[in-house]
Amino acid sequence: MTGPNEGIGGDAPQAIRKLQPGRLVIASHNSGKVREIAELLGPYGIAPVSAAELDLPEPEETGTSFVANAELKALQAADLSGLPALADDSGLCVEALGNEPGIFSARWAGPARDFNVAMSRVERRLEQLGPETPRDAHFICALALAWPDGHVEWFEGRVDGTLVWPPRGTRGFGYDPVFLPNGEERTFGEMDPAKKHGMSHRADAFRQLVAAVLD
Ligand code: IMP
């Protein structure tokens, strides 16, 4: 696997593999995500095909990091389709909670995927640690781009902020209403979506991917 840390530890850095124009599988069954990625990559001559269109199975996310989960999804889709494939994995890391919920961010919302439950759970855990507990948090987005021969390039984007309580705003999704990005007055739940999309962990990861494999 290569990625932002390649070369650390004395290995000679390997050349980053460029993505050639053509079909790219988006290894996600979330149609909103597939559409967003298609819009971002369209100008580079990339024709996205969704995992659902190809009837690809959704693998279990058994990795212990965002990058590992993105990588296993991308590798499986590339292997089964014979095409390059892109997958992502993202979540909220709360520093005082040892970076939980992290890769379990969706699971903290329970089977009903209720993010009021997930946000309350985070808040309760912080309150248990006392009023002086730092409320720093960050979102991470890992992107993995895999080819059928097993080569992978990966990128990790991040946005830092603090957690507010009670939740503010009804825009966005997931943990957006409690996340106040550093230097901003509005939470991701209150912010104009275009502004969020320009400064988010996902935007950061995509900027890195475009600069490395497309430009
Ligand atoms: P996944 O990468 O689609 O599996 O998303 C994991 C979970 O992380 C989501 O269900 C959300 O709970 C959380 N998450 C990821 N990105 C964001 C974001 O931009 N805003 C709010 N929550 C997010």
Provide a concise account of the structure shown:
This protein is of the alpha/beta class. 29% of the residues lie in helices and 22% in strands.
Topology (elements, then pairings):
Elements: E1 22-26, H1 31-41, E2 46-50, H2 66-81, E3 85-94, E4 100-101, H3 115-128, E5 136-146, E6 152-163, E7 179-181, H4 193-199, H5 201-214
Parallel strand pairs: 1-2, 1-3
Antiparallel strand pairs: 3-4, 3-5, 5-6, 6-7
This protein binds inosinic acid.
Inosinic acid is lined by residues 88-92, 105-106, 139, 172-176, 188, 200.
Q: Are there runs of 5+ residues with pLDDT below 50, and where?
A: 5-9
CATH architecture: Alpha-Beta Complex
CATH topology: Maf protein
Query: In the CATH hierarchy, what is the class?
Result: Alpha Beta
Could you tell me the number of beta strands?
A: 7
Question: Please, how many domains?
Answer: 1
**Count of runs of 4 or more consecutive helical residues:** 5
Shape: globular
Bound molecules: inosinic acid
What kind of oligomer do you see? single chain
